[in-house]
Amino acid sequence: MNAVAPGPAFTPTPRSQLRRRPQRGRYDEAAVYEILDAGVMAHVGYVIDGQPFVTPTAYWREGRKLYWHGAAASRMLAAAGAGAPVCVTVSFLDGFVVGRSGFIHSLNYRSAMAFGRARRVEGVAAKRTAMDAFIDRLYAGRAARLRPATESELAQIVLVEMEIEEASAKVREGGVADLPADAGWAPWSGVFPVETRIGAARPEPGMGPGGAPTADLAPYAEGASLDGRWRRRHGVRACPSRYSASAGRSAR
């Protein structure tokens, strides 16, 4: 069998190199992007006047760039948009791992950390294009059905993009790691999988035609797996076991 050539990868440095459980780490673009593309919310870490902050925000990815936006008065966006170094983290809880000793209890998780310097996206046309991409990322084809944003509305938000300079992914999946000292102890051990599913739609009275959601919202059918929805959208592989959460220098 011919060897498969590795795909593009990020080169780790001391800020992104995994130190705790390095065997769970990945630096290839495919692994990092699979986690980023499965998420909706990220946490953006930054420092203002020596004080660290972490702000949750919706985001999206295009190639090696991450985008997020918010109110024009946002301190985070002012700092990030001016070129301050930032760290963007996306994480998922995929399972509770229950062992026969407290030391063995763990979590199944996925996470990715991306580092870079952001910049403001300037110009009405560029902001409109990017925000339409954000809508279409969540609801494919919906931007064309909506009332276009006005220049006044676009002026009320700040949009930033960050070129990913380096990134790492960390994953724990699978079952319980038993210890010889646990032999003979009776507590149940195993894994409780965790996932996010879509609830029943609640139409807003007096807005729109009512009835069932339109075709562009079909992926949000009641009971659908949110993670599965992103996997189908981005064409990533299905995985029989779940992934995990903490990258960079985080602990197990």
Fourth-tier CATH superfamily name of the largest domain: Electron Transport, Fmn-binding Protein, Chain A
Task: Bin the strand percentage.
Answer: 25-35%
Shape: globular
Which structural class do you get from the secondary structure elements?
A: alpha+beta
The portion of residues assigned to helices is 10-25%
Order of adjacent strands in the largest pleated sheet: 2-3-4-7-6-5
**Helix and strand sequence:** EHEEEHEEHHEEEH
Describe this structure as you would to a colleague.
This protein is an alpha+beta fold and 252 residues long. A 6-stranded antiparallel barrel has the order 2-3-4-7-6-5. The chain is 18% helix and 30% strand.
Please summarize what this structure is.
The chain has 252 residues and is of the alpha+beta class.
